[in-house]
Amino acid sequence: MEKQKYHIEFDFKSIPPPLLWSYIATPSGLREWFADDVVLQGKRFIFKWNDGTEQTASIVSQRVESSLRLRWTGDSLSHYFEFKIMTGEMTDSTTLLLTDFSTSEEVDDARELWMSQIDNLRIILGC
Hints:
This protein has helices at residues 17-24, 27-33, 107-125; strands at 3-11, 37-41, 44-48, 54-63, 67-72, 81-88, 93-103.
C-alpha cells in the first residue's frame, strides 16, 4: 500500500534548541517520552517497549541541534521520519517539525499517536 508524507508542527515556545535536541536525538532523552528503553548502536537506534515490542531505526541524516532523519528497518528507502528544530529569530520561539509517512487509511491514527507522544514530551519539558 502506498504511503503518503505528512507534517505536524509543534510549538515549544522558548525551549532552547539544545535542550529539545537532547530529548529527540539521544537514547536518554528518547527514553523519557518515546520508548521504554532506547539503545544507540553505531547509526542505529533500538527502541523497546514494555509490552515486548522492539523496533530498529537507522540514522539517515543528522544535523546536530537541527534535524534527525530516521528510517525504520524494513521501510522503503523513500520513507523516513524526521524531527526538525526550527527557531524564530524575531520571536525567539522553537518549533519542532515532524515529518512521517503513513498509508491514507492510517494517517489520522499516526498523527494522533505522534501528538500523544509529543504531549508527553511537552509535559517533561514543562511547556
